[in-house]
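Deviation from plan, reported transparently: adenosine-5'-diphosphate complex.
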Amino acid sequence: KKVADRYLKREVLGEGTYGVVYKAIDTKTGQTVAIKKIRLGKQKEGVNFTALREIKLLKELKDPNIIELIDAFPHKGNLHLVFEFMETDLETVIRNTNIFLSPADIKSYMQMTLKGLAFCHKKWVLHRDMKPNNLLIGSNGQLKLADFGLARIFGSPDRRFTHQVFARWYRSPELLFGAKQYGAGVDVWAAGCIFAELLNRRPFLQGTSDIDQLGKIFAALGTATPSQWPDLAYLPDYVEYQYVAAPPLRSLFPTASDDALDLLSKMLTYDPKARITAQQALEHRYAKRFHCFFFLFLFLLVL
Ligand code: ADP
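Because the crystal trials were delayed, the predicted structure below was used instead.
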């Protein structure tokens, strides 16, 4: 049975934030795809045309480190989003203790994440829901960001679906303090948390509520103060936290290089205006510097 006269439905891949995701074959290209079926809820018109129009814009977002949105169409009251199929995701890789992650692997994953982010931020599109299971990995090891722009179109998912609690661990302090105006910095913060998770192979800041999340952030990085972050006290949900000093970052990441820690601290800077951008992070000496094994490999190749 074909969907929209084009896609041959295969097995269900999982239940996501917005609905069921299933595998399918695109009979037009022979390509394996993943189709996200999005419940449109109780919209009177059945199909939300605003969402559809915005989705069309996402189809223009083409980059090697972004999951391509191949097609989008309404079908039986659901919106169907067709994406390129990916083998696995970064969460699965981080959790799988049989997989060894070398410093070069971590750097490569971070470079691909930052490249995808920088590309979208340049086009003024925010992700807003960055977490390791949204970073998909293809059979060739290529990492691509999934679900770009969906959080804005369909609303922040974690408020409506309880299984989304993990997203909290990647929330920036300005979001946790209720900022209504925020920018690309929220994605950079999340990428910083993912970086930390790659380094230690466990989620960095595992808050159990929004208040606890801020507590965990301040315990790890020191309490945010107006001297570091002038706009802090004007945020809607601002409450004063008891002051704690930051332990040395090095003590939390014993195996990381100095360059890695320097970039990490810049991605986890409290003031979003002072936080490093994805583009600047790509130009940071950690991300720019190739691992010496890579040079050794090149050298051997030349020989
Ligand atoms: P969540 O909203 O919880 O992040 P998703 O809706 O993104 O979940 O995905 C639900 C399931 O579908 C997950 O198991 C995920 O691995 C799988 N999935 C999502 N997108 C793809 C894709 N492009 N290729 C392969 N599997 C995918």
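The first helix runs from residue 49 to 58. We consider this an acceptable substitute for the interim report.
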